[in-house]
Amino acid sequence: MKQEETLSAHDFARLEQKLNDCVELLSDLLGSRAAGNQTTVQILKVDDVERLYGLSPYLQREARRSGKLKYIVSGRREITYSRSALEAFLRSRTLN
Questions:
Q1: Which domain holds residue 59?
Q2: Residue 60 above 90 pLDDT?
Q3: What distance in Å separates the CA atoms of residue 4 and residue 11, rounded to the nearest whole number?
Q4: pTM of this prediction?
Q5: DSSP single-letter state for residue 72
Q6: How far is it, in rounded angstroms, from Cα 29 to Cα 73?
Q7: Same-domain status, 28 and 50
Q8: Sheet with 72-73, side-by-side order of all strands
Q9: Does residue 3 form part of some domain?
Q10: This protein's superkingdom (predicted)?
């Protein structure tokens, strides 16, 4: 028997925020492509990676330390990732 799931107001608000964040990032990406700027590397912050891919900051840190996830340190000591490096890391963790 299938059990019905209900969302609390808090869960619904979190889901709505995640969807809005995804839409915003997608519109930014599509906007840059429409402007003819297709060679731009998309940079993601630690928070973006957690929100979009569900990778906790702890998992990101461990992957960086082990050399499995390439990263960029900006002048402010902020950790960022190129989307291509992140996707390569995710592909390496995918089981067939």
A1: 41-96
A2: yes
A3: 15
A4: 0.57
A5: E
A6: 22
A7: no
A8: 43-45, 79-82, 72-73
A9: no
A10: Bacteria
Q: Is the pLDDT of residue 42 over 90?
A: no
What distance in Å separates the CA atoms of residue 51 and residue 32, rounded to the nearest whole number?
21
> Is position 61 within any domain?
yes
Alpha helices in 1-96 (DSSP H): 9-34, 46-53, 57-65, 83-93
Are 69 and 63 within 8 A, CB to CB?
yes
Q: Give the pLDDT band (50/70/90) at residue 15.
A: confident
CATH of the domain at 76: 1.10.10
Could you read off the pLDDT of 23-33 as tens digits, one per residue?
676 666 666 55
Residues 82, 94: Cα–Cα separation, whole Å = 19
